[in-house]
Amino acid sequence: xxxxxxxxxxxxxxxxxxxxxxxxxxxxxxxxxxxxxxxxxxxxxxxxxxxxxxxxxxxxxxxxxxxxxxxxxxxxxxxxxxxxxxxxxxxxxxxxxxxxxxxxxxxxxxxxxxxxxxxxxxxxxxxxxxxxxxxxxxxxxxxxxxxxxxxxxxxxxxxxxxxxxxxxxxxxxxxxxxxxxxxxxxxxxxxxxxxxxxxxxxxxxxxxxxxxxxxxxxxxxxxxxxxxxxxxxxx
Length: 235
Ligand code: GLP
Hints:
- The chain is an alpha/beta fold.
- It has helices at residues 9-26, 41-52, 80-87, 109-122, 159-165, 184-188, 202-210, and strands at 2-6, 31-34, 62-65, 67-69, 99-100, 128-131, 153-156, 178-181, 192-196, 228-233.
- The protein has a seven-stranded parallel beta sheet with strand order 1-10-9-6-2-3-5, covered by helices on one side. Strands 4-8-7 form a three-stranded antiparallel beta sheet, covered by helices on one side.
- Helix 7 (202-210) links the parallel strand 9 and strand 10 (228-233).
- The protein starts with a strand and ends with a strand.
- Bound molecules: 2-amino-2-deoxy-6-O-phosphono-alpha-D-glucopyranose (GLP).
- 2-amino-2-deoxy-6-O-phosphono-alpha-D-glucopyranose binds at residues 35-39, 66-67, 132-134, 140-141, 161, 165.
């Protein structure tokens, strides 16, 4: 595992954006595993600027996102589909149809989980998976639990995640209590993983990277992957 500590959060985002750009330049049909949350937004802004400047071309790229809330359709501003459209997809030359997320309104979530896993598999899994981390160590929506879930699956969100994510909703009661997420196995199949965390996540990042590997700290499983880079900052 490689750890990069930068001088500022903006610098961390610049490092990650450069890595994504370098991958797409060397492999124009790269498969990018993407994440939501406040953490990656500045990275997406930098990718948009690079795309506008003609430094990177997304026309042959496919994206696969980690997760989606159950019960929210893509036109709901709180959905992760909407988030991705707003912060990246609509502002770069990614073709419609090349951006993939689980469908949070599928009638049968178990079937949707199988469909999404098969889709990610058919794309050959991510060349690069971008990850944020929750304060309880969750990655995607893999919450602390008794065993590492392998494949895409529906999940009940923990109270701490609902509270943390409620900042983006009008009321805590509006936060969906269920989500559908790539499993730990799906994430680990990415060829390269970039975990980015701001200074506020220092404690959980340290616990995940240096503590015991346990599903009670889902990100700790990253210690088992052979190409993980963690980008954090001092400030
Ligand atoms: C959500 C997402 C995660 C993300 C986490 C942290 O729960 N499912 O993928 O890493 O939030 O979000 P933030 O970056 O806003 O702290």
